[in-house]
Amino acid sequence: MKKLLLCLVLLTTMLLTCSVALAEGELPTEPFTWEQLATIAGATLATLLVVQLLKLPIDKVWKIPTRLVAYVIALIIMILATHFTAGLTWENAILAAVNAVIVALAAMGSYELTFAKLEE
Length: 120
Known about the structure:
mainly alpha
């Protein structure tokens, strides 16, 4: 059952990435582009994966809440993606900070729907 759920998570992740690329009219040739990371879907996927990678080492060294880690990762991704696509201005940075809240919440919700079930 766990293998089936993991396969479903991976399939959903791939479909999410491909749907962003197909919306732009081309198939992806690399895992992420800055344009994809500048979208809520792309930033959510990247945030989910990075937080899962860093969560255990961060918990062993420091006791930082995972929600805060998710927001900081989402903020970094959104600011970098904004910088490399539209250019970083104060207005864009503020919008990136607000969008990072949405991305972090979406990533945490995705975690609850997928990885949390695997851990139970």
